[in-house]
Write a structure and sequence with these properties.
The complex is a heterodimer of chains A (84) and B (209).
Chain A (H helix, E strand, L loop, with lengths): L2 H6 L1 H5 L5 H13 L1 H19 L7 H24 L1
Helix pairs in contact in A: 3-4
Chain B lengths: L1 H22 L3 H23 L2 H17 L10 H21 L28 H4 L2 H13 L3 H12 L4 H8 L3 H23 L10
Helix pairs in contact in B: 1-2, 2-3, 2-4, 3-4, 4-8, 6-9, 7-9, 8-9
Classes of the chains: A mainly alpha (84), B mainly alpha (209).
Amino acid sequence: MKCKDFLKELTDYLDGKISESLKAELDDHMLWCHECHVVVNTTKKTIEIYRDNQIYELPEDLRTRLHQAIMVKCKQSSSGKKSH
Amino acid sequence: METIQKKADEGITSELALVQAAKKGDLEAFSELVRRYDRNIFRIAQHITHNEEDAQDVVQDAFLKAYQNLEQFQGNSKFYTWLVRIAVNEALMRLRKRRNDRTVSLDEDVETEDGAIPREVADWSPNPEQLYGTAELGDILKKTIQGLSPGFRTVFVLRDVEGLSTEETAEMLGLSVPAVKSRLLRARLQLRERLARYFKSKRGGDGQP
């Protein structure tokens, strides 16, 4: 297996969505190919770091304000509907 | 395990019940749906627009549109899938407005070769989370994902940050499953390549082991 073919399978490999036999081939490739080994590790880390460090959390006070604004608009739109 | 499964089942049932109640005009039921998903919608909107003001507008408009169009929600998919689809469209519209560019779409830059061939092959050690403080790390992560085209970052956010399946992501974005997969691979590789500038091991000078 060439590195190019390895890369093609990377996403399914990381998601655990490949057959046992293909997984064995990829694992075997990683044993001797240091570069692909590093690419797998660092791509895995890339996913984890974005998953574990939520960079866009909704602050609680903003959340309350947005919620109120949404409900006011919904109320207005349903009372509008009824008057038609 | 059993209780978790039971809770998950109850979650699905009550979502449908809430949607049905909201369809009949029960605002309290819709309010519960807002509470359930507002954080996710805000995160997705922020990732696409990169602008807090726009993200706030997206959250409001997406929920309002969902409420006004509840009748059209057939219940073939999950309410959340339907809601995200509305929110993604709203977010892309805001992005177009801000960039004053009608061409912003999920298809932008999909042909790029950027990151297709890994260049940075030095391992990351120590753990990046030990190298940087929380705020600094947050800035790096934001700056890095902002460099991706909207089509790539949207797929990455839905699949890897929000943890949705490839099939769900395809349905939300109106893309085929292979298109989602290929974008996800490219997004992951581009992010990896860019993060390597900050995280690669300094030992060995040029990063080689």
